[in-house]
UniProtKB/TrEMBL annotation:
GO cellular component: CAF-1 complex; nucleus
Keyword Lyase: no
GO biological process: one example: DNA replication-dependent chromatin assembly
Keywords of the record: WD repeat
Pfam family membership, one: WD40
Protein name: Anaphase-promoting complex subunit 4 WD40 domain-containing protein
Cross-referenced SMART domains: WD40
Organism for this UniProt entry: Entomoneis paludosa
WD repeats by residue range: 165-196
Length: 215
């Protein structure tokens, strides 16, 4: 089954198993997102009819949770909250053999959730958004304190900040990581978008203050 993570103003981060019928599974794999009809998911009845099934909660006495995002490889879950630094939950190293690490989430229960590796990265208090690199080795982080930073995996279980910028004049609302891994983008409440090269120097590559006119 697929795994869905949800969070909000409460301190809990909830994980759900998403059971899809064969027809729904086929639609996800083949249809364009613009062709799909929205589906209302009910709690799973356990009879193969599809639906949502609650798995467990990852509670760390968090304030309001602003964002939760799995890495593309399915091995890590990034959590951004008000008033705290970036939190990372990762599949245990010994559970990643054979490329099956991402399936660990679908076996997670309240009893074994303590097996997850947990890290706090000093990114700046009040994380508003995160964006993963396509290989799951880095993530771009936005904060309320006007800053953005690039976090990179070091070794098996550690993460460290390799770049930080505080050029925005207001809190940063969103960030995006170029799928090709060349550029990073940040959007702030100061009404600007800034574009950075991944191997950034001290200054922004481009600053966008208004839409570019089409030729």
């Amino acid at each position: 089954s697929h795994v869905l993570v949800t969070a909000g103003n409460c301190s809990q981060i909830n994980l759900w198993s998403l059971h899809l019928t064969p027809c729904e599974e086929s639609n996800i794999e083949s249809d364009s997102i613009f062709q799909r009809k929205p589906t209302v998911l009910a709690p799973s009845a356990g009879n193969g009819s599809g639906g949502l099934e609650y798995r467990c909660s990852l509670g760390r006495d968090n304030p309001a949770v602003n964002c939760v995002k799995f890495s593309p490889d399915g091995l890590h879950l990034a959590v951004g909250c008000d008033g705290t630094n970036l939190q990372l939950f990762s599949v245990p190293w010994h559970k990643r053999g054979g490329g099956n690490g991402r399936h660990f989430w679908s076996t997670l229960t309240q009893e074994n959730s303590g097996e997850l590796n947990y890290r706090v990265v000093n990114t700046g208090e009040g994380v508003t958004d995160v964006s993963w690199s396509s290989d799951g080795q880095r993530l771009f982080v936005a904060s309320i304190d006007h800053s953005v930073c690039l976090v990179q995996r070091v070794g098996q279980e550690d993460w460290t900040v390799v770049y930080r910028s505080s050029e925005h004049l207001h809190y940063v609302q969103g960030v995006a990581y170029d799928p090709l891994g060349v550029y990073l983008a940040s959007m702030s409440n100061d009404r600007s978008v800034r574009i950075y090269p991944r191997k950034a120097n001290a200054k922004t590559l481009k600053k966008v203050l208004k839409p570019i006119k089409q030729q």
